[in-house]
Amino acid sequence: MKYIFYFILVVIFQSCASQVKPVLVDSEMETNVKENLAYYLYYPEDYLEEPDKKFPILLFLHGGGESGDSLITVKRNGPPKLIVQGKKFPFLILAPQNPNAKKWWNTRAVKQLLDSIVGANRVDENRIYLTGLSRGGGAAWEMAVQYPETFAAMAVVCGMTPLPYASWINKQMPIWVFHGEKDKSIPIEESETMVAKLQEMGYEVIFTKYPNVGHSAWVKAYETEALYDWFMNQELKE
């Protein structure tokens, strides 16, 4: 019996040894990811009147509620809403729409769109501004991390923050953060923690908190006239 057991073990061992060993293969594949971005593009009144002048541009990223395939919803909030109400801005405004109702912004696609618009218009590349609210605010933080040499200033309204990557943001870029203290969708602690971290590292950050305001802090934030004056005073620093 002992010899039979030994024989079985030998057979099992040889069977295992004869199997193909794991191999690590070096290879690569070129991927091609496309995103169809509808957008609004606003021109200031004097754009055509001053053909030799270059203008700043503000990239606005909307929240999750405006995502989808109906571009008109982008006019619900932020600068597009104010434009519909008759407000005039001294810079171009690019407002793309995230076509994915339940997905994060494709920030690489947004950057490609921005580059295309900048290249096709008289834009001062040292005065490209960035802003976003809610899901778009989180995407604005992400773009500031990914493209630290692009934006001259950024304003974020109630956005989720990439705290571990705070040091990747351009330290020369001024930042203005807005948040409602009663926000239940994205707690104000998101902004408080990020602002504290940035200030600790020497960043220039303005933090505006709205008492008794929930997730809709963007209403007050984008009606703040000083915000647009602040943007106009910023220029990309090397």
From TrEMBL:
Q: Which UniProt keywords apply?
A: Hydrolase, Signal
UniProt superkingdom? Bacteria
Using the record for this protein, list the coiled-coil segments as residue ranges, or answer none: none
Q: Which residues form the Dienelactone hydrolase domain?
A: 115-216
- Note whether Hydrolase occurs among the keywords: yes
Tell me which SUPFAM superfamilies the record gives: alpha/beta-Hydrolases
Keyword Hydrolase (UniProt): yes
Give one Pfam family.
DLH
Report the InterPro entries cross-referenced here. Answer: AB_hydrolase_fold, Dienelactn_hydro, Plant_Biomass_Hydrol_Est
Q: Name one GO molecular function term.
A: hydrolase activity
Q: What is this protein called?
A: Alpha/beta hydrolase family protein
